[in-house]
Design goal:
The structure is a single chain. The longest helix has 17 residues. The two termini are 23 Å apart. With 250 residues, this protein is mostly beta strands. It has a single domain, classed as Beta Barrel (Porin), CATH 2.40.160. 7% of the residues lie in helices and 54% in strands. Strands 1, 4, 5, 6, 7, 8, 9, 10, 11 and 12 form a ten-stranded antiparallel β-sheet that branches.
Amino acid sequence: MIKSLSVLLLTIFFAIGAQAQGNWGGGVDDETLHFGFTFQYIQSEYKIQKGLNWRDNLVDNSITERLKSVSSSLNPGFGIGLLANLYVTKHLDLRFTPTLIFADRVIDYEFESGNKYEQETVPSPEGFTRRAVSSTMIDFPLLLKLKSDRKGNFRAYLIGGLKYGYDIGAKKNADDADNTYFNKLLKNQQGILSYEAGLGFDLYFEFFKLSPEIKISNSINSVLRRGEDPYSTPLDKLFLRNFIFSLYFE
């Protein structure tokens, strides 16, 4: 995220220096409907709501475990997408940005015994059992863009709306490779409805407009797919939260 913010600051400084060149932008603001594309850097985490008796013993034949902690940490991902922008008023646009997202989400479980149950290809931190949910999402955000007045080659805006995401890799990850109780996987719902909100800047260059943007996205409903396993059993609800840095080219 620090690298992304550095890119944003450098871009702004470059754009300010370009303002003396004229009122640029390729004429996109004069079009009722225009198109573009986007690159996104994403950090994903879970907001966890534990069950009432989440520490209770988890038993598989002769193995008995009791949980000490459950936590989620930020994990990086990226996305590429298209943009369709509809002019509504001088200060309002409607934006549709279908995006292909590649991102993993992780939860770390700490057992009182200190035992670890590794997921294949997913290394666990010392003393923890990590479960990762690998996802390839197609996101369909429909957002309102509230724009300020344009000052030279600069404009600020707020953005927000709803997004439906569909995990095209969910069926592939539906079955556990190992049916042993403590080696099972954590699973998520295939369809996820979220809300998004953020801010950004329109920077006008001679033939195009560049828009760095920062958003936060939160799922509205729990994404947890419950099963007979020690990783979903302690959880009541599981919400997905994304921090998104985007570059839009229009």
